[in-house]
Amino acid sequence: MSSTGTTRAHEPAGTLTEADAAHYIGMSRAYLRAGRQHGRGPAYVRLGRAIRYRPSDLDRFLDRHRVVCDSTGGR
């Protein structure tokens, strides 16, 4: 689904393009590309040359990077 809420014919249902995924997590497309290149980004689906992201994988990625601070200012 694109950021406009419409499904594009060439996208698997329930997946996001790189641009939509970047918007979803609030980062740039370059951030996602670097993550793929270095093996530290969110899980993705490769269909030929096309890269797609599942929202559930993006949510897991965000959860893994969540930092919880205690009341004294520590982690």
Task: Describe this entry's structure for a reader.
The chain is mainly alpha-helical and 75 residues long. It has a domain at 18-58. The chain contains three helices and two strands, in the order H-H-E-E-H. It has helices spanning 18-25, 29-38, 55-64, and strands at residues 45-47, 50-52. It has a two-stranded antiparallel sheet with strand order 1-2. Strand 1 (45-47) and strand 2 (50-52) form a beta hairpin. It is elongated.
Helix/strand structural class: mainly alpha
Strand content: 5-15%
Helix content: 25-40%
State the helix count.
3
User: What is the rounded distance between the termini?
Assistant: 36 Å
Q: What global shape is seen? A: elongated
Oligomeric state: single chain
Mean pLDDT: 87
Number of strands: 2
Main pleated-sheet profile: 2 strands, antiparallel
Radius of gyration: 14 Å
